[in-house]
Amino acid sequence: MTNSLDGVRGRGEVVAPDQIAERLAGAPPDVPAAFQARLSAGLVLDGELTRRTASSRLVVFLPGAQANEGPRRMPFYHRRRWVSDLPDAHVLALADPALRQDERLRGAWFLHPQADLIAEVADAVAGLAFALGVDTPGILFYGSSAGGFGALMMASRLAGAAAIAEIPRTDLERNPFKRHVLLLEEAVVGRPLAQFRLSYPERVNVLARFSHEGRIPPFVLVTNTTDYCHPEHLELMEGLSRLESVERLGVQRIITTTTLGHYPLGKQEALGLIEAHFMRLDSAGPPVAAEPIEAVASEAGASRPVASEPGVSEAGAAEAGAPEAGAVAPPDPAVGPRPAPTAAVNPQTTIPRQAQMNHYVSIRFSVRGIAGEPEFADDADRAAWFKARADILRRCTGPSLLRQTTPLRAVFILMDSADQERWEQHLNLPAPFVPLFIERGEINSAPAAHIEGTGDSDVILTRLDSDDALADNYLEEIGRTARTAQDGGREEAYIVACNGYKTDFRVIQTVYHTTSSYLSVYAHRYSGQGVYQFNHMNVHQHNPILNETALWLQVIHTRNISNRIRIRRCQHDPDREIHNGSPLPVEQAWPLVFLPVWDPRPNAGLAS
């Protein structure tokens, strides 16, 4: 670990938390004034307060994670530039003191191996509010993602304080991005999070914090069904009813359609939520007693994303939030069904720039003669093998493609030239599925000929096995990465989806793999680029872009043993990095994002 006070310079005296108000006493109103307060364990809380001459409101903005690209900023705030938009409230922007524990950290979720930083920071806010003449009901914590986690936790600490939490993490153990979890375990808590949680559940789980404080604070939870944290949000709302002997105030869940994935609302929508909260407070109206679900729409469309991978918080945006883009949850009936995908190789309808990529998927289904895959050429078992594999594609792979949040131009099913009758008997899928009956040497040229025939530019071609599944926003996240590459001047790029799961339906494990088979190629001007031109384990030779937000599910079955569950946790070499999580029973650890596709119950097989 680095020294906790490294980099603490040029901001005046480091004071005790109860001396913050005294430290800022001479600061003029309406001008941000910086301070540093010493916490336990040698950590420092950085903050900026903009004081108003007379206000009974205090808005506390909490930070999410910093961008993985570029230098780490210390201190790091969110929404500090919104001060002028809140002229009737004191505005306090806080950094996460836990970041000072290790220079590699970009997000730390207020964690510490001994100190309860949530409690310490909340108590410091309470003391400052008292000095400003603000009662605790006038305190509003606001944050996105990691900041939303902190907002919910801290609001429960102070009786009467409220929180607005956008796309928050509510259970740190559920983070699918294992590289982040491993860093927290190594650099912060010094042990597996599961062990740390046994000692301090209230520091890693929002429901546990509510129980620990004996209070459910009034809060607004802003979510959307394509956010990979959405299953956590559903569990949080359901879990509130199970908490006993706790003070219960009003809660509200807003399912928004104005932003998709793990991204916050736009500035005006967020400010509207803040103003609505204080209007209810000023009118002394009762807090929302139950859990109304509101669909929030906007003519302006989705908020501008401020990240393209987990841990990215701004990526050039004006401190808008702290997203960790990723997998999606099952569709919510409050939002309604998603639009059907476009038909194969038909003109694409106009969609927002963020998603204006021409997506194709290539599935090598039954092409004979592939080295190392004898079942493709085993004539004795071929009929039974084909039928079983077709069943998997119909129930698993196919539905996961039809549920994508971005339109599909075509899904090429690459089949042996002798398998046309079997296709008609066992599959015969409509558009966007397009069967191509080919010889072994045509697995790249056959899809390329179809794509080139459309004249499409900004093409993304993705490879997928016929027995695996993709999270609903997989192609959207790949497209976002391709757009970033294009904006950076690249006209062609290979993209590797690093994060996913392996399962044999008895156990499931997380996987992080920098040369995984979940490979896409982006081409601004398409000229035959393929995804089977080299072994995916050698993709590092092609300067790939690593995507950590598009999640996949790899299924292990029958003779598919090359991708077996592996107990070895990590593997490193100069070109490849693999992290295998501990295998866990499916009953305990099945990712909700894949529930629409599979039934994980023992012996259930495929969902009907």
Task: Fill in the keyword field for this structure.
single chain, 608 residues, alpha/beta, 26 strands, disordered N terminus, disordered C terminus
Low-confidence stretches: 1-10, 286-355, 370-377, 600-608
Helical run tally: 13
Strand content is 15-25%
Which sequence of strands runs across the widest sheet?
1-2-3-5-4-6-7-9-11-12
Structural class: alpha/beta
Q: What's the gyration radius in Å?
A: 26 Å
Q: On the 0-100 scale, what is the average pLDDT?
A: 78
Largest sheet data: 10 strands, mixed
Tally the beta strands.
Answer: 26
- Percent helix, as a range, is 10-25%
Give the distance, in angstroms, between the N- and C-terminal Cα atoms.
Answer: 51 Å
**Cα shape:** elongated
